[in-house]
Each structure stands twice: as C-alpha cells, then as structure tokens.
Amino acid sequence: MVIREGKIISNVGIGPFLLGMSSKELENIISDYTTENRVNNVRVYHVENAQFFFDENDALQQVGVSLGFESKYLDVIGIGDTLKELTKLGYEYYEEFDDYLIRGVDGICFELGDTDSDYDWNEKEAPIEWIFVYDKEADEN
Predict the structure, then answer these.
(1) pTM value?
(2) Using CA atoms, how far apart are residues 102 and 122, in angstroms rounded to an integer?
(3) Among 27, 61, 74, 128, which lies 20 to 30 A Cα-Cα from 84?
C-alpha cells in the first residue's frame, strides 16, 4: 500500500492519520502492513512509503511519509524537494539528531536523502526523503 496524498499539518497529522488515533483506527485505513516492536514499548506499523509510531498507550505519536507521497507541506515542500525551497519562503531550519526542523514550528521534521557523492553533500541541496509529523508534547516527555 502506498500513501499518495494528504494534508500535512504539523503537530496534528498527515491526511486521515491523526496523532492520538489508535492502532485499530489505523488498521481500518491501511492494508498490506507489517509491524515491529521497538524499545520503550513503541510499536511501528510500516506500509510501502509510510511509518506509524504508537506509544505504550496505543496512541499514534508520529507518522512519516516517503517516496510516492505527492502532497506538500505549506503546498511547497514535499518529498524530493530541498530545504532551499523552505528558506525561500522565509523559514529557518536547524538540524537535530539527523532530522531537520523548522525554527518556530513544532511537530514536523524532515530527513534528507543522499546525493551522488558524500563528498559534495549539501543539506540545502539534498532531497527530502521523509516528512514526519509528531506530537511535540509527547516528544518532550
């Protein structure tokens, strides 16, 4: 299953995948998924181009989309775009643990892909590979 589109709202969700929803609610929307258990009782659902992270209370804490997802954050920044587009809109970004966050905007981050060479890798030019929306309050606990 490929997630193709959905409105990206920081600290809220992506399309029908709203933070706080239960895994049963997710299972009613997706198909062809696998699950894995991670440390701290985190359960992750995987479909072809998305990941869904549930906490020990069975609440969706983070959703991420990748290649094949066509919607864009702020109708400008999507999979395959670069952080350069974000700066053109007047937003500043910063790096935290290999994720790129928007200064002053909670609950969204980007993971960048590789370019042809690690030698000339530039964060402004590297394509966005993943967009994650997460629960900022849960992230702080």
Answers:
(1) 0.92
(2) 17
(3) 61
